[in-house]
Specification:
Elements: H1 16-39, H2 42-57, E1 60-62, E2 65-69, E3 73-82, E4 90-99, H3 101-105, E5 108-117, E6 120-125, H4 134-139, E7 160-178, E8 184-200, E9 204-217, E10 226-240, E11 246-262
Amino acid sequence: MPDTTVSSPSPRKPRRGLRLVVWTLGVLILLLVVVYFVGTSSAFFKGIILPRVSKALNANVTVADASISPFKQVVLHNLKVQLGDQEALISAPEVRARYSLIDIIRGNIQVDEVALSSPTVTVVENPDGTHNYDALVKSGTEQPTETKPAQPSKPSKPTQLDLRKVALNDATVRQIKLYKNGNRDVLELSHVNVTAEDLKNSQTGKLAVNADIKMQNNPPAPGTNSLLQAKLTGNFAIGLGADLNPASIQGKLRLDTAQASGGMAD
């Protein structure tokens, strides 16, 4: 009878390769989490993003605080846009946007809300004809580089828009013209409320507007001083086509004058 040799199984080696893979994945996930929180933090936005925006616009763009969730929401507090030592061009206590980034990447612009709370826009014309927005305008007038004409392509599918609400709440828009003798003309729209709702392809949305108007002119002689106070209200139904071009606009706009004197008396 032949001898039978029975060998015992060798002990298993530790699965070092599997452990290494798991450890590497864990580190990568941790790094992604860290990058996400750093990249969406208020400090990163104010210290890295806003300086680049300011440089591109030739303006000083600042916020007091920012809350950013890249896929769904951005909230900015105390936004200010100022050019040099001029009066601030734009200031807003709060700017809020709620959206779906995934849908936007897919070509469907789905925005639940865009809201500006109590913003102030001030446009100033100095006696020498310059304005407090001149540097901002110059930043957008650089000579474009020459490009070859694009080859004709097949018509692309129109962008799908689902804009549920855009709101301008209690805004102030002020235009000031300064004269060499210290006089000034002021046109001010205060308590401006503009709301647009349900703007979609092949749908009819709503637009509501109301504002208080005050115009006070004090030009040097031989100009005539004038004063106008009025209230503006309007409501419209705006129909959009499948390609987002305006298809119809229906509504009314009303101007009620409360006071008019001087050059505005007639």
